[in-house]
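Sequence and structure are kept together here, with a separate record for every protein. An example record follows, reproduced without changes.
>
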Amino acid sequence: MCWSATADLAAGTGIAAVGVVSVSLAARRPRDLPLAALPLLLGAHQIVEAAVWRHGGGTGPATLAWAVIALPLLALWVPAAVLCAAPPAARRRLLVPLAAGVATAAVLACALATRPVSAEIRGHTVGYALGLPQTGLLVAGYLLATVGSLLLSGERALVLFGVLVAAGAAVCFVLWREEYVSTWCAFAAVCSLLLTLWAARRRPRGPARTAAA
């Protein structure tokens, strides 16, 4: 979340708590667990950013942890999780965003291992700087991996999630171009609460109770 450390901490704690519920709802469908855990991961991500606020930005461990989650981890996690949960008919086309995610995550991980990442508090937002090579190509690969996998999932709820995240990406880019990554991650974290409803709807029904004689 933007605005302050307190806002990030409160939002992250609430989203992570809903993520725990989402994981519990998906416990009986192991293939759904990675995607159901996304709100938990994104909630924890916002809590990490609260630590970035507390330290006034800079290049410390909290900044690096935030960047690792936001960049290579999510680029790989989202398409892999969608592929796991998708119906068989959709899995072949989902190999494309997964491949994009693997390639993008590899480049981003290499960049984080060899370049310093810094955070700067800018009023009510946080800006992150890494100096990535071929930024446009990396952004395209990242969007294909994350948003593209959701749109190609074949699941109505996941497509809706993808549409919302794509719209949020456009709005955040227009309003906060320099703080685009931070604000978009916060927006995606809030939208990920939809996955709790998705997990609840996919939860297998228990065996019907037989009437006592």
